Amino acid sequence: MTRIAHLSDPHFGTEDARLIGPLLDFLAQARPDLVVLSGDLTQRARPAQYAAAADLIRRCPAPVLAVPGNHDTPLYDLATRLLAPWRHWAAAIGPTEGEWESDAALVVAINSANPRVWKDGLVTGAQLDRIAARMARAGGRRRIVAMHHPLEGPPGEPPSLAHARRAAERMAAAGVEMVLSGHLHFTHAAPVPAAPGILSVQAGTCLSTRTRNDGNAFTLIDLIPAGVILTHVRAQPDGSFRADADRRLTRHGTVWQGAGP
Description:
Radius of gyration: 17 Å
Low-confidence stretches: none
Oligomer: single chain
Order of helices and strands: EHEHEHHEEEHEEHEEEEEEE
Mean pLDDT: 94
Structural class: alpha/beta
Strand order of the largest sheet: 3-2-1-12-13-14-15
Distance between the termini: 22 Å
């Protein structure tokens, strides 16, 4: 069984520092094969904030696949945002895109942050071509994409990703079955309406004080033969992290079905 710890939106610069140690302790006990960190590592893309994010990555007990979010490029430093938006990211974290694979899974990470718009995201045709080409060589592995902006918005609201329907349809055609994202600061898992063969898995904020009715939380994803088990892990009042819900979802053909809490 492959286990992925899906963390997002720590927003260093607004982090609750008392949670860092317990988060790392929980990860060490959970023993994931991969940690996905789906963006907004920093609050204002400042070097000190990047240094703190890089330290968290170094201390993780598994390989980390990290992608930027909109907060990881400067908001007020317009020249840097437009001319060299990922300078601080590259110096502290490395490439803005990457991939990880095992015998069971292939995870392709893409940068959906759009410095010109800043808040809303964008997936380009070239990125979708890359996903399709890489997934075509995945063999029997599970096909997963990680990015900051989700393919679907909050209930009743449009996605924060430009051309989200096109991206979902292209990913579905490439055989992608899950997209891991953040940005909205709440935990959510549901099939994408435009492409029900894709399960959208959104993680809350793991460390930031900028919580939105979900507290500080992240998700463990266990890949099982018929689908996935999603375990919601939440920070407790004493600062520890504990699993508080499991949800089993199965994929029948190209349709996801869920059961459990």
